[in-house]
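Example 9 (inverse folding). The structure is encoded as follows.
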């Protein structure tokens, strides 16, 4: 379906889903029929925060009441899609915001899609540590 669309980019808004799609080229690397098609597909994937920056959304006159804000990375977005600076840049561009980096921002929160449902006890231990 994506090949037929001839889209320049495939934009995702969920780190876990984007990460799974981003690994298609790895999953199909030994398949002679799908290897290049999968690689072409993964090159088109972008998180929506990257697209917003490309469209200079951070240059918009956005404002909120004075407040301190932090950001919790999606592990999949940070580690697989290699997107972590973009959301922070967008947040910092909002007038009235004081951005403070969360301690251990790069550490896992224990959610990982449905992990918090299927392994709730372990998930909560990870979250407690965070």
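The amino acid assigned to each position is listed next.
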């Amino acid at each position: 379906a994506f090949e037929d669309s001839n889209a320049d980019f495939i934009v995702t808004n969920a780190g876990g889903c984007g990460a799974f799609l981003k690994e298609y080229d790895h999953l199909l690397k030994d398949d002679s029929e799908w290897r290049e098609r999968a690689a072409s597909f993964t090159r088109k994937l972008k998180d929506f925060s990257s697209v917003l920056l490309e469209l200079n959304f951070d240059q918009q006159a956005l404002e909120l009441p004075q407040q301190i804000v932090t950001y919790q990375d999606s592990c999949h977005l940070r580690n697989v899609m290699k997107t972590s600076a973009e959301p922070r840049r967008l947040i910092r561009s909002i007038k009235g915001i004081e951005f403070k980096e969360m301690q251990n921002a790069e550490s896992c929160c224990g959610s990982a899609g449905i992990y918090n449902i299927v392994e709730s006890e372990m998930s909560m231990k990870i979250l407690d540590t965070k």
